[in-house]
Design a protein that fits this description.
Length: 185
Amino acid sequence: MNAQTPNKPILIVAIFIAILTLTSLACSSNPVRISPIHISPISPTIDITLPQSLFDKASQKSDFHMGGTFENLLDRITSVELHDGYIRFIGKNNSVAGSFDLSLTAEDGMLKAAVIAVDIPGFELGDEVVTEVNQELEEVFTEVLEDSNGEVVFKEVSVVEGGLRLKIQVNIKETTIPEMQIDIN
């Protein structure tokens, strides 16, 4: 039997120190005072790349069923392709096969998405249903930004052959945890 080395030795050390601290505090009868803790604002940037293989695996497992206004374009997505500057969704509307292309960008800290091409029999880019899809996308992404109070900022979004890259900044506001007293009996 092989003993496995923990993946996070720092976590184990932190847990050990916490247990040791609590044990020593439990032996004393004096209350413990914790001074206020001040956390300065930080804004780390996170770089995420979603490879084409991830979309391929998801497409192989099952079809995606679209909801909302998208259902009027394609109600079932059978595959997703990443191209330079856009994502192509291939699927069916009832029994009619087709595709549409979706552009993703970052603008003023927001994620922007728009249908930029349609190849579905009976539909054109200027149709009302495409306009409604684009309006719905704008409303959803605006709402997401408002709900996060500017805590998540999209710095860069790029779609290239083989990958979707998202670079986001997470703004953590300055905060102070007040002084506390812990009585351990």
